[in-house]
Amino acid sequence: MQKKIKINTESIKLDQFLKWSNIVGSGGEAKNLIQAGNVLVNQEVEYSRGRKLYPGDKVEFLGGKTIYIVSRD
Predict the structure, then answer these.
(1) Which residues fall within 8 angstroms of residue 33, CB to CB, at 6 or more apart?
(2) According to the UniProt entry, where is the signal peptide (predicted)?
């Protein structure tokens, strides 16, 4: 399943995106998921919570069924 998440800026940091889209409830939860290697950006494991995401980037979780697509519209 794919789900578009609209952002209002040119880019967004990975941890902020996870909070903005209500995937996680807090920054701490986002930090833990990212540092544990459970978050993929464009099908590659991402360990940096400050990674900038741009429209078209895809975020998913190891073993998850939903792909979150960064969108401007």
Answers:
(1) 18, 24, 39, 61
(2) none
